[in-house]
Design goal:
Layout (H helix, E strand, L loop, with lengths): L1 E6 L11 H4 L4 H11 L4 E6 L3 H11 L6 E5 L8 H9 L4 E5 L21 E4 L4 H14 L1
Parallel strand pairs: 1-2, 1-3, 3-4, 4-5
Bound molecules: 1,3,4-trihydroxy-5-OXO-cyclohexanecarboxylic acid.
C-alpha cells in the first residue's frame, strides 16, 4: 500500500508551534515512527504553505499515483473551496485529518470546506490522528 500524507500551512512548524495544542514532536520525527510502524507499506510526505501547490500535488497523485491521500489542510480546511474541488476532481480517496479537535476550538474552525469531499475525517487524537487515518486506509482498500 502506498499512502501520501499532505500537510498544509504552518504544519512545517509542528513541535515549535502552539505546543499546548499541537504537541512537542516535529513531523519529521513522527514520520519516521509511522514509517517504522508500517515498514511493509510506502508512506510518502508532502508539505506546503501554499494553496495552489497543495492542489497541484493532489492533481499529481490523484489519478493512480498512490492508494490514498491523508490530508491535513491546516487552516485551508476552513477556507478553501479550491482544495475541496480538487479532492472531488481526483480519483484517489482522501482522508481528512486534524491533530486537534477542531470542533472543540474556535467557531471558525467548526466549518470544513473539505469534509464533504473526503471519505471521512479523523480529528483530535494528536499526531496519532495520522496513524488512525492509515489504519482506516488499510481497512478500506483490503
Ligand atoms: C489543524 C486545525 C486547523 O484549524 C489549524 O488551522 C491547523 C491545524 C489541526 O491539525 O488540528 O493548522 O488542521
Amino acid at each position: 500500500m502506498k499512502v501520501l500524507i499532505i500537510n498544509g500551512p504552518n504544519l512545517n512548524l509542528l513541535g515549535k508551534r502552539e505546543e499546548s495544542i499541537y504537541g512537542s514532536m516535529g513531523f519529521d520525527a513522527y514520520l519516521e515512527t509511522l514509517k517504522n510502524l508500517y515498514a511493509e507499506d510506502e508512506i510518502i510526505y508532502y508539505q506546503s504553505n501554499h494553496e495552489g501547490d497543495i492542489i497541484d500535488e493532489l492533481h499529481k497523485v490523484g489519478f493512480g499515483g498512490v492508494d490514498a491521500i491523508v490530508l491535513n489542510a491546516g487552516a485551508y480546511t476552513h477556507t478553501s473551496i479550491a482544495i475541496s474541488d480538487a479532492i472531488r476532481a481526483i480519483k484517489t480517496p482522501v482522508i481528512e485529518v486534524h491533530i486537534s479537535n477542531v470542533m472543540a476550538r474556535e467557531s471558525y474552525r467548526h466549518t470544513s470546506y473539505i469534509s464533504a469531499s473526503c471519505v471521512g475525517t479523523i480529528a483530535g487524537f494528536g499526531l496519532d490522528s495520522y496513524r488512525l487515518a492509515i489504519e482506516a486506509v488499510k481497512n478500506m482498500i483490503k
